[in-house]
Each structure stands twice: as structure tokens, then as C-alpha cells.
Automatic annotation (TrEMBL):
<dbReference type="GO" id="GO:0009423">
    <property type="term" value="P:chorismate biosynthetic process"/>
</dbReference>
<dbReference type="InterPro" id="IPR006264">
    <property type="entry name" value="EPSP_synthase"/>
</dbReference>
<comment type="pathway">
    <text>Metabolic intermediate biosynthesis; chorismate biosynthesis; chorismate from D-erythrose 4-phosphate and phosphoenolpyruvate: step 6/7.</text>
</comment>
<feature type="binding site">
    <location>
        <position position="26"/>
    </location>
    <ligand>
        <name>3-phosphoshikimate</name>
    </ligand>
</feature>
<protein>
    <recommendedName>
        <fullName>3-phosphoshikimate 1-carboxyvinyltransferase</fullName>
        <ecNumber>2.5.1.19</ecNumber>
    </recommendedName>
</protein>
<dbReference type="InterPro" id="IPR023193">
    <property type="entry name" value="EPSP_synthase_CS"/>
</dbReference>
<keyword id="KW-0057">Aromatic amino acid biosynthesis</keyword>
<dbReference type="InterPro" id="IPR036968">
    <property type="entry name" value="Enolpyruvate_Tfrase_sf"/>
</dbReference>
<feature type="binding site">
    <location>
        <position position="174"/>
    </location>
    <ligand>
        <name>phosphoenolpyruvate</name>
    </ligand>
</feature>
<dbReference type="Pfam" id="PF00275">
    <property type="entry name" value="EPSP_synthase"/>
</dbReference>
<feature type="binding site">
    <location>
        <position position="320"/>
    </location>
    <ligand>
        <name>3-phosphoshikimate</name>
    </ligand>
</feature>
<feature type="binding site">
    <location>
        <position position="174"/>
    </location>
    <ligand>
        <name>3-phosphoshikimate</name>
    </ligand>
</feature>
<feature type="binding site">
    <location>
        <position position="31"/>
    </location>
    <ligand>
        <name>3-phosphoshikimate</name>
    </ligand>
</feature>
<feature type="binding site">
    <location>
        <position position="99"/>
    </location>
    <ligand>
        <name>phosphoenolpyruvate</name>
    </ligand>
</feature>
<feature type="binding site">
    <location>
        <position position="27"/>
    </location>
    <ligand>
        <name>3-phosphoshikimate</name>
    </ligand>
</feature>
<dbReference type="GO" id="GO:0003866">
    <property type="term" value="F:3-phosphoshikimate 1-carboxyvinyltransferase activity"/>
</dbReference>
<feature type="binding site">
    <location>
        <position position="127"/>
    </location>
    <ligand>
        <name>phosphoenolpyruvate</name>
    </ligand>
</feature>
Length: 439
């Protein structure tokens, strides 16, 4: 399939109704493969995200000598090789579009006795890697990148790593996780302090695999030289994928949707908090815990939204949900202001610019700022052609805008939706979105 030509056509209007289980959490699925591979014994993963990003991680570990069986949709069994059982890959490891895969694997591979090369697609090849290579170098790793600090990464391996006590300059779960993974191979203690809370799936899953991770406020530490033991991981539905439907149902009059089995880890629920502050009607039912992660069913009904100033402390807790939230802001009464979100500029696309361009294309006023955006809610807006810049979340966000548009919205360059949400068009159509895809 030609990635650039896959396009969505979204009919104006409609409402979202019924119930829906979105695919498995992408962050947790990556980690289940990685930790399962590095553990002793078998790890069975249910609810695994069969999307391109996590399949790249799965293929990477196969290339590193790990046997991974695919047992059915969302169901894999990883035969762990232990922390020291990986073998060199014969070719460069291609991590496709996935920042998480590249940054976490850099941490794992820095601790190996052999060299590895990590490559990615055009988008990943533009993303900053110094945020992991610099602290890994402080631990003793040798990693080469381009002069701009972007992939490919050549990880020399065969170094003795030592634990460091690192204060992260940005709130990044990927950096924290890369350093903790390298810390498993380091002499002594590795500690990471985060400037604001970020998703803690690594800490939770390491604990589930028997590795003691100590948290003291914003600082999380582990000791090198331990071992991981495999087990079962049940992956919840991804709140970042559910977010499109939380927004879609909130903006489309007549909507009522039940989103099943969604991960509601408090380091991920910023989207619910922000939407509720805007006036959204979201209820959380049957909270429960699965594999160390909180899970619940979410019911969302249409409600008129108001623009707000988004509190900066909620930014890392909703970092991937801003494309969807900007569509909510476009449909809200009044102005929504986001600040403290410069990280959005270094995702799969520059999400501030890409969203502002798309919003202006459909007639919504958006003012770009260095670390955020100001969006004027519109009573009505038209349709138009949107460029997703190959960014899955931009594509899905504008698909939801169709629910309130007065004309058809065309979105080009949508193939990467498959990185996080395979089956998006079918699932969205089944609950009432007038969406079709073509090449
Ligand atoms: O650790 C993770 O699984 C992720 C962390 C976040 O990235 P940063 O660490 O760059 O904020 C997020 O945007 C990404 O989608 C997944
Ligand atoms: C930023 C994202 O992913 P990654 O960094 O893994 O490419 C995302 O899925 O929104």
C-alpha cells in the first residue's frame, strides 16, 4: 500500500452510539514484549496491540534471538531469554515509526555484549535521540547518531555500564524507561528524577516481573544485577485510542458511547480531566485492576463544551491526546489555551503546527505558539483537505471533526493510523462515524 495515498473521507454530521473496545495499549504492549524477552520463563500477553509500532518491537526481539509465538489476534507468547540471553541481529533493526521502540531499545541494547544498529522511517529519522544517548553515555555506553542527534543509532555494546542519578530535563517516560532498562545492566543504582509525573508503566511492569523499583517522590531507582521473571500480562484498551471517541461523542449531539476495558492509569487520564473541565459528560464504571494496571469502562455522552486554559501540570498526563483535544477545543464555546507543551513539536509530526494548519483548513482560528496553541471555538466549521503528515493521531483527530463539520473532510496520508489503531475505520464506522478509506 502506498502510505501517502491512503485517504479518509469523512461525511459531515452524525452521532456516536453503542459500545466499543479499542485496541490494546501501545505503551504497555511494547513493554510486555521487551520485559517478556528479557525475563526468565514464558510471558503470555493478552490484549496485545497488533499495530505496526508494537509489531516492530516484536520483530526486533525476534531478530535478537527471542522466540515469540503469535497465538491469535492480540495474543502472543514470549519465550524469555533472560537479561543476558539476547544474540546479535544480523541486520540493522528497523523500528518503523516508533519513538518508544527506538528509545527503550537504546537502553536495552546499551547493556549488551554486542553492537546493534537501530533505524526508522522518515518521521522517526527526524526525532531527537540525544535525550537518551546523552544520559546513556554518562552510564558508559557508546552510541553514535547523526550530527543532529537523530537516527540511525549505532550502539557499540560491550561496555560496562554504571548507574547514574539523572535529573531529566523534560517530562519523558521514554527517557525514564530507557535509563531504567539500561540500569538493569549497570553496576550499582540507577535513579531518574522526573520534572513532572509521566506514565509509569515501566515501573509497574518491572515490579510485576519481580524487579524492585523504589520511588521517592519524583525519583525512581533500581539496582543493577537483578533478574526478571516472566508471567501473564493482560493489556487494557488504550486510553490514547479511546480519546478520539471521548472527544467524538462529546462534540456530536445525540451521542452515547460505552468504551470497554480502558486503561485508567492516573499517569494517563489527563484527557478525562481536561474534557471534564471543558464540561464533558464522562462516567467511569467498574474500576478494576489487571496486571498491575487500573482499568474501567467509560461512558461518554454529548455535552456542550467550553474553552479553558489547560493547566500545565496536566500536559504530560495527556501528551498524546492533544490532537483530539484540539478538536474538542474547536467545538467548544470560547477560547482554549495550551502552554507548556513544546514536546508536541517532536512527536511523529510537529503536532502543534500540523493541527493548526488542519484547523485553519476547515475554518477554525488557531494561533501557534512556541510551546502551545490558542484555539477559538467555532459555532460551525466547514470541510476541506487535511494533511496528516503521516501522523496517526492527526489523522484520527480530524476524522472526529467530521461529526461537527458542515462539509466533507478529506484526510490524506493516513496509512500510519495502523501504528496505534489497526481497524480504526471499521470500528469508528460501527459506532456511527461516516468514514471511508481509499487508496
Ligand atoms: O513511554 C511511552 O510509551 C510513551 C511516552 C510518551 O513519549 P515521551 O516519553 O517522548 O513523552 C508518549 O508520547 C509516547 O506515545 C509513548
Ligand atoms: C508519540 C507517540 O508515539 P512514539 O513516540 O512511540 O512514536 C504517539 O503514539 O503519539
Amino acid at each position: 500500500m502506498n502510505a501517502l495515498t491512503q485517504r479518509y473521507t469523512v461525511m459531515p454530521g452524525g452521532a456516536l452510539k453503542g459500545r466499543l473496545r479499542v485496541p490494546g495499549d501501545k505503551s504497555i504492549s511494547h513493554r510486555a514484549i521487551m520485559f517478556g524477552a528479557l525475563a526468565e520463563g514464558e510471558t503470555e500477553v493478552e490484549g496485545f496491540l497488533d499495530g505496526a509500532d508494537c509489531l516492530a518491537t516484536l520483530a526486533a526481539f525476534r531478530a535478537l534471538g527471542v522466540q515469540i509465538e503469535t497465538l491469535g489476534a492480540g495474543h502472543v507468547r514470549v519465550h524469555g531469554v533472560g537479561l543476558h540471553g539476547l544474540t546479535p541481529a544480523s541486520d540493522p533493526i528497523d523500528l518503523g515509526n516508533s519513538g518508544t521502540a527506538m528509545r527503550l531499545m537504546a537502553g536495552v541494547l546499551a547493556g549488551q555484549a554486542f553492537a546493534s544498529t537501530l533505524v526508522g522511517d522518515a518521521s522517526l529519522s527526524r526525532r531527537p535521540m540525544r535525550r537518551v544517548t546523552a544520559p546513556l553515555a554518562q552510564m558508559g555506553a557508546r552510541i553514535d547518531a547523526t550530527p543532529e542527534g537523530t537516527p540511525p543509532l549505532r550502539i557499540h555494546g560491550a561496555e560496562t555500564l554504571r548507574g547514574i542519578d539523572y535529573a531529566m530535563p523534560m517530562a519523558s517516560a521514554q527517557v525514564k524507561s530507557a535509563l531504567l532498562l539500561a540500569g538493569l545492566y549497570a553496576q550499582g543504582k540507577t535513579c531518574v528524577t522526573e520534572p513532572a509525573p509521566t506514565r509509569d508503566h515501566t515501573e509497574r511492569m518491572l515490579a510485576g516481573f519481580g524487579c524492585r523499583v523504589a520511588r521517592d517522590g519524583a525519583r525512581v531507582c533500581l539496582n543493577g544485577g537483578g533478574r526478571l521473571s516472566g508471567g501473564k500480562v493482560v493489556v487494557p484498551a488504550d486510553i490514547s485510542s479511546a480519546a478520539f471517541f471521548l472527544v467524538g461523542a462529546s462534540i456530536a449531539p445525540g451521542s452515547e458511547l460505552l468504551l470497554e476495558h480502558v486503561g485508567i492509569n492516573p499517569t494517563r487520564t489527563g484527557v478525562i480531566e481536561i474534557l471534564r473541565r471543558m464540561g464533558a459528560d464522562i462516567d467511569v464504571f467498574e474500576p478494576r485492576e489487571m496486571s498491575g494496571e487500573p482499568v474501567a469502562d467509560l461512558r461518554v455522552r454529548y455535552a456542550p463544551l467550553q474553552g479553558i486554559d489547560i493547566p500545565e501540570d496536566l500536559v504530560p498526563l495527556a501528551i498524546d491526546e492533544f490532537p483530539a483535544l484540539f478538536i474538542a477545543a474547536a467545538c467548544a464555546q470560547g477560547t482554549t489555551r495550551l502552554t507548556g507543551a513544546a514536546e508536541l513539536r517532536v512527536k511523529e509530526s510537529d503536532r502543534i503546527q500540523a493541527m493548526a494548519d488542519g484547523l485553519s483548513a476547515i475554518g477554525v482560528a488557531a494561533e501557534v505558539q512556541s510551546d502551545g496553541i490558542v484555539i477559538q471555538g467555532a459555532d460551525a466549521f466547514g470541510g476541506g483537505v487535511i494533511h496528516s503528515h503521516g501522523d496517526h493521531r492527526i489523522a484520527m483527530a480530524f476524522a472526529m471533526a467530521g461529526l461537527r463539520a458542515e462539509k466533507q473532510i478529506e484526510i490524506v496520508d493516513c496509512a500510519n493510523v495502523d501504528t496505534s489503531f489497526p481497524g480504526f475505520v471499521d470500528k469508528a464506522s460501527a459506532v456511527g462515524l461516516g468514514i471511508g478509506s481509499s487508496l
